[in-house]
């Protein structure tokens, strides 16, 4: 039985861990070929093999292709890296159908936890905006260029771009001015690019996860931490996500990314899909 993304060619940035890893695995499970991209193929804070190796062991390639997934090292904030990433995808698989701009960074380690803006180092702003904001902009730029240059997908659409935002792209939170600004930027980029390429039948959407159990969140909110502040933060976040009494899982977000790249989202563009257990309903 064909998957929902059967034979589509996808790039997933930040694919080594967390949400990106789950998206890449879910895409392969739905029949896509995947270019996994990150700074390092090894999972961060997770156990297991690199994402592309896990995909190839579980989902063999077909149609004479050498592999279901490959890894391409790239810094998503560097223009030449992103341009080369798209070129390598086309070299390996012949085209690019789906671009998932997932690579991102939190200000953890760049500024004091909970710091107000007057205590926030300017370098934190530059680093967070450089990856979370510029990285998404670059991914859209080079993906759109390739999608315009190639023949349309058999569906008639030219491509699907999915940008990873956050609930903090729609609301604020004390101590998160850099991160929140970067994720508001993602939503603004998504809306503008969707309007620019709607006539070309390129879908451009965003996913806004709530707080999700990943290696990115674990240092600051962890029920099993020996740090009482991390335990308290975890309890506070649980109370703010009313659905099912839990934080998000990477698989929750991956399901949304599958939907937005599938024919089920055939008339969806310029939207931000909240996957947050009710966080922004408060």
Automatic annotation (TrEMBL):
GO terms for molecular function: oxidoreductase activity, acting on the CH-OH group of donors, NAD or NADP as acceptor. Keywords: NADP. SUPFAM superfamilies: NAD(P)-binding Rossmann-fold domains. The keyword Methyltransferase does not apply. InterPro entries: NAD(P)-bd_dom_sf, Sc_DH/Rdtase_CS, SDR_fam. Belongs to the short-chain dehydrogenases/reductases (SDR) family. This is Short chain dehydrogenase. It comes from Helicocarpus griseus UAMH5409.
């Amino acid at each position: 039985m064909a998957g929902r993304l059967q034979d589509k060619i996808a790039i997933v940035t930040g694919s080594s861990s967390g949400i990106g890893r789950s998206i890449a695995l879910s895409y392969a499970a739905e029949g896509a070929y995947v270019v996994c991209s990150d700074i390092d193929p090894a999972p961060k804070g997770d156990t297991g093999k690199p994402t592309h190796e896990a995909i190839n062991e579980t989902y063999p390639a077909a149609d004479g292709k050498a592999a279901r997934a490959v890894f391409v090292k790239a810094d998503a904030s560097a223009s030449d890296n992103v341009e080369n990433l798209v070129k390598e995808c086309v070299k390996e698989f012949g085209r690019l159908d789906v671009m998932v701009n997932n690579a991102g960074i939190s200000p953890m380690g760049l500024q004091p936890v909970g710091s107000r803006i007057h205590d926030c180092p300017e370098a934190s702003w530059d680093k967070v905006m450089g990856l979370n904001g510029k990285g998404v902009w670059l991914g859209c730029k080079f993906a759109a260029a390739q999608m315009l240059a190639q023949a349309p997908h058999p569906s008639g659409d030219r491509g699907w771009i999915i940008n990873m935002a956050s609930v903090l792209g729609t609301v604020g939170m004390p101590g998160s001015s850099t991160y929140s600004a970067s994720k508001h930027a993602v939503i603004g980029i998504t809306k503008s690019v969707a309007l620019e390429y709607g006539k070309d039948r390129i879908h451009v959407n965003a996913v806004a996860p709530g707080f999700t159990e990943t290696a990115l969140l674990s240092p600051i909110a962890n029920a099993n931490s020996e740090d009482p502040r991390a335990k308290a933060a975890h309890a506070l976040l649980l109370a703010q996500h009313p659905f099912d009494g839990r934080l998000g899982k990477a698989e929750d977000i991956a399901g949304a990314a599958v939907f937005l790249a599938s024919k089920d989202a055939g008339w969806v563009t310029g939207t931000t899909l909240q996957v947050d257990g009710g966080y922004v309903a408060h």
